[in-house]
Automatic annotation (TrEMBL):
InterPro entries: Metalloenz_LuxS/M16, Peptidase_M16, PqqF-like_C_4
Domain of life: Eukaryota
Organism per entry: Ooceraea biroi (Clonal raider ant)
Pfam families according to UniProt: PqqF-like_C_4 (PF22456)
Keyword Metal-binding: yes
Keywords: Metal-binding
Coiled coil regions in record: none
Keyword hit for Lyase: no
Gene Ontology BP annotations: peptide catabolic process; proteolysis involved in protein catabolic process
GO cellular component entries: cytosol; mitochondrion
Gene Ontology MF terms in the entry: metal ion binding; metalloendopeptidase activity
Domain Coenzyme PQQ synthesis protein F-like C-terminal lobe stretches: 53-151
Record protein name field: Coenzyme PQQ synthesis protein F-like C-terminal lobe domain-containing protein
SUPFAM superfamilies named in the record: LuxS/MPP-like metallohydrolase
Amino acid sequence: MFIDDLQKCCKYVFVTGCHFLFETENKLHKSSCTEVYYQTGLQATESNMHLELLAQIISEPCFNILRTKEQLGYIVLSDVRRSNGAQGMRIIVQSNKHPQYVEKRIDSFMDSMLDHITTMSENQFKKHKKALATLRLEKPKMLTSLSTIFWEEISTQQYNFDRANVEEIVHSKIRHKLSVHVISTATNGTEDELGLNNEAEEILDTAASEKIKKIDDIMSFKISQSLYPLLKPFNEFPRKGIRSSKL
């Protein structure tokens, strides 16, 4: 690998209690998209497994409530998002409804999950732990799958080649949040189909009271944010990358 390939990038820190909002327009499709990202911090053995356990617990209710019951949209996804050492939980919904309304329903769902988890029986909790353990400890069926797992460890410079057996399930309460709205402005898109101007205004008023910071300029936003430190490798290896040619 070239020395440039060994250089790491740092992830931006969302301080506890913050709520940033970025909106962009979609002029081609009638549907809009909402992504809500709850940043939990840097990756670590314990927090990794806690986050994946949370994803395991809310995955089925997220689909059943937001898609089947509330019918917000055809695409409803909840999973773990990891990048450059940082990680968090995200929920994505593609819908004909306005993103501000969708985000409000996502917030309501996440609030309900707090009660869902705290009142969960020990037997239910053990079933989720077992399901997650079974999924993670499943042996790759193809050599290419195993190669992908190992290459992920190399490319992220973590070198935890026995990660599935090393990581354990624990608990954490820190939550951070970022919202991304893709608003349809196409004919008969989000604004036309909603027909809920009063409701949208009410949501905006609520958003203002929650001190949401809207991102108008991505570069200015990035410059103003702090960065996480580089993630320490699970196993240390000497950096002997081939230096780039000066020619």
